[in-house]
Amino acid sequence: MFRTSLFAYCLVVGLVLLPILTTKDSYDKNTQRAFTFDSMGYYLYLPAYFIYDDIAHCRFLDTVVTPRYPASASYLPEKLPNGNVLNKYAIGQAVFQLPWFGLAHLVAPKLGYPADGFSPPYHTIVSFGNIFVGLLALWFLRRLLLRYFPDSAVALSLLLLLVATNYWCYISYNSHMTHASLFALFVVLLWHTIRWHEQPTWWSSLVIGGVVGFAMLMRPTDVMCVLVPLLWRNENQTFAEKYQLFRQNIPMLVLATLVGGIIVFLQLWYWKTVTGSWVYYSYGDATLEFLNPHITKVLYSYKKGWLVYTPVMVFALWGFGRLYRTRRHAFWAIFVYFIVHFYLVSAWSVWWYGGSFGQRALIQLYAFLMLPFAAFWTYLLEKRWIWVIMLPVLGFMIWLNVTQTFLGILDPEGNTRTYFWHVFGKAHVALADRKYLQVDEKFTKKKYNTHTLFETDFRTDSLLANAGMLVDNPIQTSNAHCLDNPQTPLCSPVLSIDSLHRRTRDLIIPLSEAQQKGWIRLSMNAAYTAKDWAFWQNHVCYVSFYNGDKEVKSAQLRPATIIDLWEWTPVSFETQIPTRKAVTHIAIHVGDGGTPHALFLDDWKVEWLY
Fold first, then answer.
1. Which phi-psi region, left, alpha or beta, contains residue 357 (left: φ > 0; alpha: ψ -120 to 50)?
2. What is the bridge-based pairing of β-strands 519-528 and 569-576?
3. DSSP string over 136-147
4. How far is the first Cα of the chain from the last one, in angstroms, to the nearest whole number?
5. How confident is the model at residue 483 (pLDDT cuts 50, 70, 90)?
6. Who's near 90: CB < 8 A, 6+ residues apart?
7. What are the pLDDT digits (tens) for 229-251?
8. Mean of the pLDDT values across residues 413-427?
9. What is the pLDDT at residue 3?
10. In the chain, how long is the greatest CA-to-CA distance?
11. Terminus of the chain with fewer CB atoms < 10 Å: N or C?
12. Where are the strands (E) in 311-390, listed by range?
């Protein structure tokens, strides 16, 4: 009998592989750049232990890793006072990738590549190994969903999981992170939870314990997935009967606990080896803020809101109602774990989880949310009239996910409301437009007046000259041929902010009573000969509004993020004058965050727009 869900699964497999085989960025990511940033930290355990036999010091980093991946330097192990180095990332993803790493280590020399842990075979085999496990998990997820839901609802759920959520990004492009791996583990957990409750076996007990331990080894807070087997019930089974089932199978529960504990011991062993302590907190200032969860920000902020970037999952939340009515025995286990997992994700102080697409910390949760998701589509497929509305809605959600996943228009660290709507629907974004990632406001008036509040080309600034901050233009570019035409404006002495002169003095501009509304525009020409990889270390231009000695508003921009090297570039941004309190003056300065590189500036101009 033809199964629509089987066709949907095959389509999912093709779509997962398609960008890898047809786009250069995805192909390179999976064959040459698999281990960068966080994924580098997760992976390092394998070459450190199995190739270099130096897990405590990782001496190979300076010669093998750092020259190849300079952008990942801040993600490498940190030096400890005892002389060892500590990898802050949990060891679980490395264990998950161990079979593929072992295969790559055997294959690399046979293909003529160095068996150093970082040549192309390691990237390629580990990447496609992760993807294979992910696709295998989707196969079992399909079979699991067919136990409870119609074939058509399962087919639609599988397709939308891929094409309308950020799961596509993390199974196809970023499979080296923990999220798709945990998704696969959670499918296994759900599969064996159902089988154990139908017929308890030693094998299912071992797998359940192993998955829970493995989840904790990958991301410690994911140990709470144990709630699913603890709260799951068979259909028509009461909680009293569930308690009796546990009592009758205590030896199996002990086995599950022991297996999970043995797996978690791998992390404890590493900490003891490197730090001398069995338990060590490696994430510095980042903590769980249980009394201050960032729930609304995680849900719908422009920075990393789950339902902003993956709006289709609102149907999974809606589907909890249908799941309660039709599969109540499954509802409580899934719903309680969803609440706990979501709360823990929201309570993390770095609630946007660094560079990522959408809320990546919720992706593994999709393995369980597929039940209410499928329950929702089961209900909706019976209401044919509503598809007149749903088809364009789903089309929009798919378009949104595909464009945001593959066009590279979003910033991986965090977006703003202004930037989101400025780039919405665009296939390409000018480098200069990325200023809206820092300045979350946009001047849109077509007709307005301007009044210059301050202007300088630094030719007559004796204070800066005496301080040694004015230098000859060091950059010959298309708009500054100083050797041939020294009268070019950019050939005048330019301001240099470098390691010896890290900050300009404050430029104070008073505002009159008539200037209490409108906008301020700061514009200049800027140039770099080198930038810093770390965003916060680059130079920053500050515009601060004061009421007396009290700052009431500030705006800032780091020019390094929006200009190319070795080219003088016009830079400007606007910020609105606050109206809630009177503004007596503006203070403007440029400083740096510790970068050793110089920023060159010329032709400052401050305007009032009204």
1. beta
2. antiparallel
3. HHHHHHHHHHTT
4. 70
5. low
6. 42, 178, 217, 218, 219, 220, 267
7. 999 998 888 888 999 999 999 99
8. 93
9. 87
10. 92
11. N
12. none
Q: Cβ of 99: how many Cβ atoms within 10 Å? A: 13
| 382 has a pLDDT exceeding 60 | yes
**Residue 461 CB burial class (10 angstroms; 0-12, 13-18, ≥19):** middle
Helices (H), 348-386: 366-380
Tokens of 107: 């294959």
Q: State the DSSP H helix or E strand holding residue 571, giving kind and residue range, or none if neither.
A: strand 569-576
Burial class (CB in 10 A: 0-12, 13-18, 19+), 280: middle
Six-digit token string for 162: 């891929």
Q: Which amino acid is at 369?
A: L
The lowest-confidence range among 381-395, 472-486, 565-579 is 472-486
Residues 6+ apart with CB under 8 A from 235: 327, 329
User: Does residue 485 surpass a pLDDT of 90?
Assistant: no
If you ran DSSP here, which 8-state letter would residue 490 be given? G
* 3-state SS string for 102-123: HHHHHHHHHCCCCCCCCCHHHH
Which residues neighbour 260 within 8 Å (Cβ) at sequence distance 6 or greater?
209, 210, 212, 213, 216
Total H helices, total E strands in the chain: 21, 12
- CA 168 from centre of chain: 14
Contact present, 50 and 97 (Cβ < 8 Å) = no
Encode 117-148: b = buried (16+ Cβ within 10 Å), e = exposed.
Answer: bbbebbbbbbbbbbbebbbebbeebbebbbeb
- Amino acid at site 304: K
